[in-house]
Write a structure and sequence with these properties.
The complex is a heterodimer of chains A (425) and B (406). Chain A is 56% helix and 18% strand. Chain A is an alpha+beta fold and 425 residues long. Chain A has two domains: 2-68 and 275-424, no CATH class; 90-234, no CATH class. By secondary structure, chain B is an alpha+beta fold. Chain B has two domains: 5-55 and 259-405, no CATH class; 68-245, no CATH class. The chains are: A alpha+beta (425), B alpha+beta (406).
């Protein structure tokens, strides 16, 4: 009990704040008393932050490209359709007075491009063969501004005007037709009559999307409307926005403006698999982050357990001269924080360097590229530095490190100056 | 002084117990690393299993025989004939089942709608053994034999066509003479492919019925399903030897996208393992070096007493291997336990459409392979050896005199 009497703090020491320049300098110097340990611990922290930032940046880069590729191929960011078209994509569910609506939408400052399309399922025959196909009437000039399909022509050219068609590569093989051949489209018109047109193929496209290549035929919109008994109407108004982030806001605004009869659908509703795929991968990555942080936390815990153990004598001395346990603990937490900052500097520095280097050159995917096209991916990956994770990963690390350091540090509270001084002697 | 190996092991083991808390924490880190590697591995294997199953089930089989040119131009022109009593020239114990089919593109029409599909003429009994038709739920009835004149269509297709069980649909396809044939079929059943794409693609009828419609006795494919994927290459060679003028292909060639994803998943397992081990490595090396430096005096004394440097190295290495070994065993146990907790599968229903795009099912059942566990164990031990290199180096650098003077 006599040791307790010795440890009565002097008022002057007790009043001193924990975070003076001196305490910070002291903590920093303490770190370098065991250089190797500090580097190894900070290295672990840095490595984890690097992996997290890199993995996330790769995903963000990939996802934004995937979404961009997918929406720019055909669908656009938003589509305006007849209310029932989503459940029943029949010929009769059209958007009426389409040209005036189109003209109005084109004036909207946030809409970059608009295209009207009409579509129906019909029989398409070559010389000898017949297949079922999705026939889509499009406006070639507007389509060029909205869709990347015109860039995917592998032979011939995209539609100009008149009675021309472009056809998916697989469908062309199945029908045994090519550029310059004539196909006959046979379906039923809106009034129930027979819709027929003989039309020349001017181009073959290869989008990489199996469904499209297998079943899509595009023709000029007016020819389609004529053949299928449509007036000034179509099934889909596809919109490309100037800012993709504004999709949901604009969807709500347009829906209000257009009323009940029409429905505005966003790309995530049109292609739910795309958004869910992103969600699934992100959920997986988050679990991975937590596990990685947990591993690093254990090793930081160990580092501080060793530190406290080795410096027992020093702490005993400090307690004996009147420092409070709380002050020593704060000192140790400060050391943990500085160690973490060192790791963060390493990790962030390395990831910014690597990611920005790779963002410029891209990572070639080689053989896998062909596979990835089906998922709207490019054949080179460009990671895009994710600013969110540049903050989140260090914060996650910081919190876990402070917690990990706090547990062994708590031992200081139970230290008796005399015992510690005697034990270590 | 040469110490017997058992004594060295004993010494290392006791050394570990000198710092229970610290080594306990290290053990926990190894446990987390190994446990999650095992678990992630099982999840990925489960995913690969689903992929393989779907790839093989999807009328591909493990190995398939096709006429040359059928893949580029899938029509009845590209067909071949086999003897009625033909049997695959393979070891019967390796074959789970086989069938011949006629598969042609066709147009299906209800009173309201028209769609493009693949019309497949099958032997219904054989088909249940080798393709998804044996696994799916069917509303209504199944086809009754190769001469059945009705059709089995997917649920989603029935919705698209606005038709239902018992109704008639019309199919148009091209006969062997190049002219179009049109025939009416009654819908005998609707199969439920769990919302997968196949529902909209395949329409099944009796093989003989379709051959009669097309005016042919030929078939377009033979599909063989084996008891395991490993025998694919062997079966492929044996079939190729007996069909020199036909194409014999494995599912990897027929579905290169799935094969690539399969390989991708293999790589993912490896990347996961490497990252976890490196993250673990920092902590492991740190602890081992500290353990060595704390004992500078002690090791110096042992050296002065005549302990060989080799024995000092051995002690550090054994210490690393011991702790890794114990962590490994616990980690494997935890990993296996986690997997066994989830033998009902992980419900990914929230992401159903995205999951399908990856070739997964909505319920993912992790799968443990003994070979993988062995591989994880070996790789982890090798990693433990590598991690002990630097601490061991530090230990031999200790000079007896200097150390004892401290």
């Amino acid at each position: 009990m006599s040791t307790e009497a010795l440890a009565v703090p002097r008022p002057g020491v007790a009043r001193r704040s924990a975070f003076t320049p001196i305490t910070v300098a002291l903590a920093w110097r303490n770190l370098w008393r065991s250089r190797r340990r500090t580097w190894l611990t900070a290295g672990g922290v840095g490595f984890s932050i690097f992996i997290m930032v890199f993995a996330w940046s790769m995903q963000v880069g990939t996802f934004s490209l995937m979404i961009d590729n997918a929406t720019s191929l055909i669908s656009g960011h938003l589509q305006i359709q007849h209310r029932s078209f989503a459940d029943d994509p029949g010929l009769r569910n059209t958007v009426r007075d389409a040209s005036s609506l189109l003209a109005e939408l084109e004036l909207h400052p946030e809409i970059e491009a608009v295209a009207l399309r009409a579509q129906a399922f019909a029989l398409v025959s070559g010389d000898e063969r017949t297949f079922g196909a999705q026939v889509m009437g499009v406006d070639p000039i507007r389509e060029r501004r909205l869709s990347s399909l015109p860039d995917r022509i592998v032979s011939g050219r995209y539609l100009a005007t008149g009675r021309e068609a472009i056809i998916g590569a697989t469908l062309a093989v199945n029908l045994a037709v090519g550029v310059g051949d004539e196909v006959v489209v046979l379906g039923s018109g809106k009034d129930g009559g027979i819709a027929a047109m003989a039309i020349e193929i001017v181009g073959v496209f290869d989008s990489g999307i199996i469904d499209l290549d297998r079943s899509l035929l595009q023709v000029e919109l007016r020819a389609f409307q004529e053949a299928f008994d449509l007036t000034d109407e179509g099934h889909v108004l596809a919109l490309r926005l100037t800012d993709f982030e504004r999709t949901d806001a604009l969807k709500v605004a347009l829906q209000q403006r257009l009323g009940e009869g029409l429905s505005v659908r966003s790309w995530s509703e049109l292609m739910p698999e795309l958004e869910q795929m992103v969600g699934l991968k992100q959920a997986g990555t988050e679990i991975f982050f937590v596990l990685l942080a947990l591993l690093v936390t254990f090793s930081v815990f160990n580092t501080f357990a060793m530190t406290v153990f080795e410096r027992s004598r020093e702490f005993g001395m400090l307690l004996a001269v009147g420092m409070r346990p709380g002050q020593i603990m704060l000192q140790l937490q400060l050391e943990a924080a500085l160690m973490c900052l060192l790791g963060v500097a390493l990790g962030v520095g390395m990831s910014v360097l690597v990611v920005s280097l790779m963002a410029r050159t891209g990572i070639p995917l080689g053989d896998v590229g062909e596979l990835l096209r089906q998922y709207h991916m490019p054949d080179r990956l460009y990671p895009s530095l994710a600013h969110g994770v540049l903050v989140a990963a260090p914060v996650l690390m910081f919190v876990s490190i402070q917690l990990a350091a706090a547990i062994p540090t708590l031992r200081v509270r139970h230290m008796q100056p005399a015992t510690e001084l005697r034990a270590a002697a | 002084m040469t110490l017997p190996f058992t004594l060295l092991v004993q010494l290392s083991w006791r050394n570990l117990w000198r710092h229970r808390r610290r080594n306990g924490m290290l053990l926990a880190a190894i446990l987390v690393a190994v446990g999650t590697v095992v678990f992630a591995n099982a999840v990925i294997r489960g995913y690969q299993g689903d992929m393989l199953n779907d790839a093989v089930n999807n009328l591909a089989g493990h190995v398939k025989v096709l006429a040359p040119g059928y893949r580029a131009d899938p029509s009845i022109d590209k067909s071949f004939t086999i003897a009625p009593d033909w049997q695959p020239p393979l070891d019967p114990s390796l074959v789970l089942g086989w069938t011949s089919r006629v598969r042609v593109p066709a147009v299906i029409m209800s009173e309201r709608e028209t769609r493009g599909v693949q019309l497949v003429g099958v032997d219904p009994e054989r088909e249940t053994l080798i393709s998804f038709l044996g696994e799916v739920d069917i509303i209504g009835g199944y086809l009754e034999g190769p001469a059945d004149r009705r059709v089995l269509i997917g649920k989603a297709l029935a919705e698209q066509l606005d038709t239902r069980l018992g109704r008639r649909i019309v199919m148009i396809t091209q006969g062997s003479d190049g002219l179009n044939r049109e025939a009416g079929f009654r819908i005998v059943g609707l199969y439920d492919g769990e919302g997968t794409g196949v529902e909209k693609v395949f329409v099944f009828t009796g093989r003989e019925t379709l051959q009669a419609l097309l005016d042919t006795t030929a078939i377009t494919e033979i599909s063989v399903r084996l008891i395991a994927d490993e025998y694919g290459a062997l079966a492929g060679r044996q079939l190729a030897a007996s069909f020199s003028d036909l194409e014999v292909m494995g599912w990897r060639e027929l579905q290169p996208q799935i094969a690539a994803m399969f390989a991708f998943a293999d790589a993912a397992i490896f990347i996961w393992f490497t990252i976890m081990m490196i993250a673990l490595g920092f902590g492991l090396i740190n602890t081992l070096v500290t353990a060595v430096l704390e004992r500078t005096r002690e090791l110096g004394m042992l050296r002065a007493l005549g302990m060989r440097p080799r024995a000092v190295v051995a002690q550090v290495v054994i210490e690393s291997v011991l702790i890794i070994g114990v962590g490994l065993v616990l980690g494997l146990a935890v990993g296996v336990w986690l997997v066994s907790l989830l033998d009902e599968g992980i419900d990914l229903g929230r992401w159903a459409a995205g999951v399908e795009m990856f070739g997964m099912r909505t319920v993912l059942v992790p799968r443990l392979l003994v070979a993988d566990l062995v591989l994880v164990a070996i790789m982890t031990m090798i990693f433990g050896l590598i991690a002990s290199f630097y601490p061991a180096l530090r230990a031999v650098r200790i000079k007896p005199l200097e150390a004892m003077r401290r």
